[in-house]
Each structure stands twice: as structure tokens, then as C-alpha cells.
Design brief:
Helix content is 39%, strand content 19%. By secondary structure, the chain is α/β, with parallel strands linked by helices.
């Protein structure tokens, strides 16, 4: 345990379930604690640090932006906000972008946009259909559409008008549709819920259902987006464009920023000045991170790298499962968002991994969640597999 932790008042660390280690710096795909110990990072700040740590080009951009301007509020336009919005419009094929401070705020904005759309259309619709085992954030609105009672129960009553369907079961969604249904919200890949991928038929069925019933489709791409699945955003691999989408995490490469985007058809009947706002959303500093991240992704063709290394990771995890059938139940996921359901208690494995210099996180259902920086190489995969095999054997 770090010397810092030994001196920390335990009463100050109960809000979060933190690991008994204090990180001091990062370089590439490695983290270093205050004792100088090195950790191979397969968590990336929960899928946030896509470019890893210490990217010199990104750091230089942020240093320059600090010297120019960090905040004006949204009373004024700023140059980097425009650049970031255009970059996200290009990556998402959406028409309008609203910047927030986080993924949770992006979900809040998406929900409000959907309800305002229904209001302006005069439909009287207000209900949402969400998915069981989903996770969308911890504000009241976001947790209301989160399909896990563990997150909702302590804070009830929740936002009214939310129903939960079974993920990958189109009939269960259809059974909940009524004349009050406003939108269907889902993650193309459920991260917190255990790394469950939507079936192509399910995604296409949701899109068709929404079109037929006049319902909006909202995709939460906060964790699975920004290249992690091998497509810039997971919905793109399904060919099922949503009406509204939420994003965050890796779009800022570690700088706190989120966004929700929508098509022009939705925007024309949605938010107007005064409906939704944010003091810090779209600030020059965060938007400089978004614009530079998008530039690096495109110039370095990171999607090709992700697909190559991600396929290698899948093969290695499948091989590990075959070697350890008594320890590994299942591999789930796509490219650089992977889940391994194991038989040993996941918390014990994660703590042992930390001792061995490997940073991992969990998901529900006793799953090891692997969401490394998107710049990892095959050598890093080999290093991770070696450590994980030693722990699980």
C-alpha cells in the first residue's frame, strides 16, 4: 500500500470503492503509483483514455489552449467549440451537437430532447422504453432509465414513465410500446451490464419499430463509442442510425467532456434557447481536447489499428478460455471492449492483478472488463494475457 494511503483518513474515502493504490503519472499505456510501481492499464479510466497517457500532441494543444482561453460560458461563441462540433458531426453523421460536462449530462440532454420533440409534435408522448441490465448514469434522469434495481431503489421515486424491456428481445420491446411511448434508449454494447452486444436483428428491429410507430431511437455510445468496437461508433457497424445519441469518455481523451447529437429532423422540433443549458459545457479547453482527439484518430487511422489489435485480443482471450475451461466461463465483446466471465470472485482477481502490475475493472455478473487505451499493441496484449493466465490458473 502506498505511503499516501497509510496517511489518508479512512472517513474520506467511502464515497467510491477505490483500489488501495494512488496513481501519480501515466506514460503510454502504463500507470505509475506514488511508490514508482508500474501497471499495465487495461481499464483506461473506464474507457476514457483512448490515446493513453502523455500524448505529446494532445498535451501541447491543451497547454496552448490554457494560455489562450479556458472558459467564457455559453454567452459567447468560441473557436474550439465550433471545431469540435464539426469534428463530431463528421464522425457521427449527425447534424446537431450539444456539449456537456459528462456522459450522464449527455443522457439527460438526450432525454429532454426526446420529450421536447414529442411536445412540439403535439403527440402527448413522454414514456421511455429502456433495457434491463443497462447503465446510463447516476443523475435522477439517467438512473431512471438504468435497468438495474441496485442503482434505482435507494433513490425512488424515479422519473415517471419508464418501462424496461429485455435486451436482444424485440418482442419484449414491442409489448411495451403504446401511444405514450416517446423513445427507446439502449446501449449497442452494454458495458456496466456485463459487456453484452446487441444482436444485429435486434438493432434493426428497434430502428424499424421506431420508424413505424413515430418513436425516437436513442443510442448511448458513452463507453462503446469513439472507435472501441472497431467502428467509430458502435451503431455504425449495425447500419442503424439513431435519432439521438450520447457520447463522452474517449471523445476528450481524459478531459471531462460529453455531448449529445441529433438529426436535423429531430432538431427542428426539439430544444430551443432556454430549454437546456450548461455553464461549462462546450468550454474552449474541453473542446480543444475533442477537436485534437478527432484529428489524431483520423490522421493516424486508429480504426485500422483497433481492428487489428482488437481481433488479436479476441483470439488471445479465446485461446485463454480454451486453456482454462474450468476458470473462464465465457468471452464477450468486440475488439477493444471485452468481458470475461470467470468462476473465481472477480474482486479477488482484480486485486491480485494489481499486485502483479495489471489494472483491470469489473462489470456485473462476475465479469472482468477489458477496456484498454486504444493505442495498445499486440505486445501489450501478450503481457496482459501472461499475467491474467498466471492469476487464474
Amino acid at each position: 500500500m502506498n505511503q499516501y494511503m497509510e496517511k489518508t483518513d479512512a472517513s474520506l474515502v467511502h464515497t467510491y470503492n477505490r483500489f488501495p493504490v494512488v496513481m501519480e503519472k501515466g506514460e503510454g499505456v502504463y500507470l505509475y503509483d506514488t511508490d514508482g510501481k508500474k501497471y499495465l492499464d487495461f481499464a483506461a479510466g473506464i474507457a476514457v483514455c483512448g490515446l493513453g497517457y502523455g500524448n505529446r500532441e494532445l498535451n501541447q494543444t491543451l497547454k496552448e489552449q490554457i494560455d489562450m482561453l479556458t472558459h467564457t460560458s455559453n454567452l459567447f461563441y468560441n473557436t474550439t467549440c465550433g471545431k469540435a462540433a464539426e469534428a463530431l458531426k463528421k464522425l457521427t453523421s449527425m447534424d446537431r451537437v450539444f456539449f456537456t460536462n459528462s456522459g450522464t449530462e449527455a443522457i439527460e440532454g438526450a432525454l429532454k430532447a426526446a420529450r421536447k420533440y414529442a411536445y412540439k409534435k403535439g403527440s402527448g408522448r413522454y414514456e421511455f422504453i429502456a433495457m434491463e441490465h443497462s447503465f446510463h448514469g447516476r443523475s435522477i434522469g439517467a438512473v431512471s432509465v438504468t435497468g438495474n434495481e441496485h442503482y434505482r431503489t435507494p433513490f425512488e421515486p424515479m422519473l415517471p414513465g419508464v418501462k424496461f424491456a429485455k435486451f436482444n428481445n424485440l418482442d419484449s420491446v414491442k409489448a411495451l410500446v403504446c401511444d405514450k411511448t416517446c423513445a427507446v434508449i439502449l446501449e449497442p454494447v452494454q458495458g456496466e451490464g456485463g459487456i453484452h452486444m446487441a444482436d444485429p436483428e435486434f438493432m434493426k428491429g428497434i430502428r424499424k419499430l421506431c420508424d413505424e410507430e413515430g418513436i425516437l431511437m436513442i443510442c448511448d455510445e458513452i463507453q462503446c463509442g469513439m472507435g472501441r468496437t472497431g467502428s467509430m461508433f458502435a451503431w455504425q457497424s449495425y447500419g442503424t442510425k439513431p435519432d439521438i445519441m450520447a457520447m463522452a469518455k474517449a471523445i476528450g481523451s481524459g478531459v471531462p467532456v460529453g455531448a449529445f447529437a441529433m438529426t436535423e429532423a429531430v432538431a427542428a422540433y426539439s430544444l430551443e434557447p432556454g430549454d437546456h443549458g450548461t455553464t461549462y459545457g462546450g468550454n474552449p479547453f474541453a473542446c480543444a481536447a475533442v477537436a485534437k482527439t478527432a484529428e489524431i484518430f483520423e490522421r493516424e487511422n486508429l480504426l485500422a489499428h483497433i481492428n487489428e489489435v482488437g481481433a488479436y485480443l479476441e483470439d488471445c482471450l479465446n485461446g485463454l478460455k480454451n486453456e482454462l475451461p474450468d476458470e473462464i466461463v465465457e468471452r464477450r465483446g468486440l475488439r477493444l471492449i471485452q468481458g470475461i466471465k470467470i468462476k473465481k470472485p472477480v474482486g479477488e482477481v482484480i486485486n491480485k492483478a494489481l499486485e502483479e502490475g495489471l489494472a483491470l475493472i469489473s462489470a456485473s455478473d462476475n465479469v472482468l472488463r477489458l477496456v484498454p487505451p486504444l493505442i495498445i499493441t499486440k505486445e501489450h496484449v501478450d503481457e496482459m494475457i501472461c499475467i491474467l493466465k498466471r492469476i487464474l490458473e
